[in-house]
Amino acid sequence: MIERYTLPEMKKIWSDEHRFEIWLKIELLALEAQQKLGLLPQEDLEKIKKGISFSPDRMQEIEKVTRHDVIAFLTTLSENLGPESRFIHFGMTSSDVLDTANAVLMKEALDLVLKDMDGVLDSIKNKALQYRYTLTVGRTHGVHAEPTTFGLKMAVWYAEMLRNKERLEKAKENIRVGKVSGAVGNFAHFDPRVEEYVCEKLGLKPDPVSTQIVQRDRYAEVIWALAMVGGSLEKFAVELRNLQRTEIREVEEGFSEGQKGSSAMPHKKNPITGEQICGLSRILRGNLVAALENIPLWHERDISHSSVERIILPDCFILTDYLLHTFQRLLDNLVVYPENMRKNLEKSRGLVFSEKILLELIKKGLTREDAYALVQHCAMKTWEDESLSFLEVLKNDSSIREYFSLEELESFFDYNYFLRQVDFILKRAGIEG
Predict the structure, then answer these.
(1) How far apart are the first and last CA of the chain?
(2) Are strands 335-336 and 251-252 parallel, antiparallel or unpaired?
(3) 29 and 76: one domain?
(4) Is the pTM for the entire model greater than 0.70?
(5) Cα(56)–Cα(44) distance, rounded to whole angstroms?
(6) 141 is catalytic
């Protein structure tokens, strides 16, 4: 596990202690179901419940010999019992315990991740509302395009994280299955009602059909949903990192008292949190490859997936939990510089209004091709001479002046023009307040 990034609630879910608790619960529920179906007497069930005990240390000792964790677990359960212990794990296989427990663990972990998602969504929403009308230049290919707002940037993120939440909820439903169906999944040695009972008590559904294992496309879907969250967070972090570049400086990560940016250069304030988010999200994507490789197993199962999952399941949930908390902290402490946004917006000296002029010429009756040629000619003059504004060039161009008065041209250079649909977009994205 990646201990450095493990937050307390998620750490508890993936602890050995909690996992063994679920294993024991599954075994006891299976016994209860068997008793209800008449396989073992109530008296023996009570003896088992009263006398059963489990020691992780003892399990470790046994596992050194057996080299099989579930057998070591079962042995520890039986050591203080009498003949009644023969009913423990009756007709079951190891994966009945392991896969059913994994479903419980992933369900609990997804509940925590979904809670984290709600926190991130709230933070993004707050920023979208706070900066809904804060003009900034839109950039395509890294080059100034047209004005947008910082709030609309946040709205894009909000809608994307809602999609991620939907993916997680769907993955949670598809992983919420248990199996207690025996060595090849055909219930050869006990009634399917045992599986139904165990799953119902654990808040799971019975897997409609299984082999010795729950099929690993379900697991891959969960890891994919987590990797998608990581991909989105990296995308957001990359944008903030770019906006923090010295020559742009429209935002900055919060810089706490006593924090240092560089061992060599005392002036540095680096976007280290965003960089950490970007780096750790790569691990999620790498683990997704491993999860996909776990889907094709030999026949009714082999064990090649098992060692992989002991790493990627806890690590993916631990990292996603950490990344969501870290991104929320980054966003909540973000320093925003609207004055720098405005300054950068005006660096192109009005060229951001080129499409507006193009469309106004088309309204005057020009073909799109002819209008484009006129506007591009003036735009290139503006690019080449930094002493000129786009409006000045247009005013002095005889071809343009055939269609517009000075007053008309000046009226086109209104930044509020780009704010007209902001409220509509935010409302459509579910951001209101």
Answers:
(1) 41
(2) antiparallel
(3) yes
(4) yes
(5) 25
(6) yes
Q: Which residues contact 229 (CB under 8 A, 6 or more apart)?
A: 113, 117, 161, 164, 168, 284, 320, 323, 324
Of residues 292, 280, 289, the one with CA closest to residue 317: 280
Per the CB < 8 A criterion, the answer to whether 100 and 89 are in contact is no
Least confident of 52-61, 231-240, 256-265: 256-265
CA atoms of 123 and 118, how far apart (whole Å)? 9
Q: Residue 179 sits in which domain range?
A: 94-344
Q: Are residues 260 and 196 in the same domain?
A: yes
Q: How confident is the model at residue 242 (pLDDT cuts 50, 70, 90)?
A: very high
Question: Which listed residue (141, 267, 307, 387) is catalytic?
Answer: 141
Domains in the chain: how many in total? 3
Tokens found for residue 354: 């080129």
Per-residue pLDDT at 361: 97
Contacts of 86 (CB under 8 A, 6+ apart): none
Q: Letter for the amino acid at 164?
A: N
- pLDDT 10s digits, 151-202: 999 999 999 999 999 999 999 999 999 999 999 999 999 899 999 999 999 9
pLDDT given at position 292: 97
- Domain contains 421: no
The residues, ordered by sequence, that sit 6+ positions from 305 with a Cβ below 8 Å of its Cβ are: 213, 216, 294, 297
Residue with tokens 């509940």: 111
Final residue belonging to a domain, choices 295, 323, 344: 344
Count of C-beta atoms within a 10 Å radius of residue 97? 26
CA angle 234, 236, 238 (to 5 degrees): 65
Q: Which of 304, 322, 344 is the last residue of a domain?
A: 344
Rounded to the nearest integer, the mean pLDDT of the chain is 95
The residue type of 204 is: L
Residue 262 among the catalytic residues = yes
Out of 53, 68, 189, 262, pick the active-site residue: 262
Tens-place pLDDT, residues 287-297: 999 999 999 99
d(CA 271, CA 344): 20
